[in-house]
Design goal:
With about 280 residues, this protein is α/β, with parallel strands linked by helices. The chain has helices at about 15-30, 60-75, 100-110, 115-125, 125-140, 150-160, 190-195, 215-220, 225, 245-255; strands at about 1-5, 35-40, 45-50, 80, 90, 145-150, 170, 200-205, 235-240, 260-265, 275-280. Helix 8 runs parallel beside helix 10. The chain is globular, with a radius of gyration of 21 Å. The relative contact order is 0.10.
Length: about 280
């Protein structure tokens, strides 16, 4: 089989990209051919097409979906898997969940949302395109197979888009149990390195920490009930892209001493044993 994959980029190492790379590796091992269509070039050595699209949104999203799908069909792909909102794909994987839920989670991660931002969203062509494309993908009984990464997402689909429920299948994100086997991981000295041997440690680990609630977590550090904890609660934020304003927010809230930023952490195995709780 010749499989086409439509995704923004494979350059970063976030969850969606790693998921895609493992899928591609599995397909290649099975003897299938894989073609990737994205907005930027990648260095993975896989057959790849860069789709030219306008920089402005929503034109970029709409053009990328249309041209990307057409290009993969022209390349002779038997099936196309879309990680993007693209009506016409054969399988759709909404790794970010439903549009409305993703926006709600984004708002919760910021901790506060101004009326001006909400108004701008209502007028945003980008969000309107995403909502329309999602309706086209999920609003009817007929359409692409939908791959849900959790039973919770499938249940949410059943509530919002009941007509497409029979098209949904749950395939959880896999975990490489050998890679994370404690016997294969050297003992973590991270607590000692950070001076946290006697502390209660929360870990927020993500390629884009802001999208996973970093600001809300830092604000939580300043709450009286958190400050009163004994032993003291410290937050470790690790990831590929740490926003420059996180330390500024911590200083303003007076929690700098209990916030530890670790940029560029690609192997989380040293982090997990050092944490008492995962923050996400």
């Amino acid at each position: 089989m010749r499989l086409g994959i439509l995704i923004d980029s494979l350059q970063t190492l976030g969850g969606a990209e790693l998921h895609t790379m493992r899928l591609i590796a599995s397909a290649l091992r099975a003897g299938d051919q894989v073609v990737v269509a994205s907005l930027v070039a990648n260095t993975t050595g896989i057959e790849h097409v860069v789709v030219k699209a306008p920089r402005g949104r929503p034109a970029r999203d709409r053009v990328f979906a249309e041209r990307g799908l057409a290009t993969l069909r022209e390349r002779g792909c038997d099936a196309v898997l879309g990680f993007r909102h693209c009506p016409g794909v054969d399988a759709y994987l909404p790794h970010g969940g439903l549009v409305a839920d993703a926006l709600h989670a984004q708002d919760a991660a910021r901790g506060r949302v101004s009326r001006l931002r909400l108004l701008a969203r209502e007028l945003s062509g980008k969000h309107r395109f995403f909502a329309e494309a999602e309706q086209a993908l999920l609003g009817a009984a007929e359409g692409p197979r939908v791959i849900c990464v959790s039973h919770a997402l499938r249940q949410r689909m059943r509530a919002v888009y009941p007509a497409s429920t029979k098209r949904a299948v749950v395939i959880p994100n896999g975990v490489d149990v050998r890679h994370f086997d404690p016997s294969n991981v050297p003992p973590s000295t991270l607590r000692t390195e950070l001076g946290l041997d006697g502390a209660y440690v929360g870990l927020l680990l993500a390629w884009h920490p802001r999208l996973k609630g970093a600001e809300a977590a830092i604000r939580a550090l300043a709450r009286p009930e958190v400050q009163a904890l004994d032993p003291s609660f410290h937050l470790v934020v690790a990831g590929g892209r740490l926003p420059a304003d996180l330390p500024v927010l911590a200083r303003r809230l007076g929690v700098t001493a209990r916030l530890h930023l670790l940029p560029g952490f690609e192997d989380p195995r040293r982090l997990y044993p050092a944490a008492d709780v995962l923050v996400h």
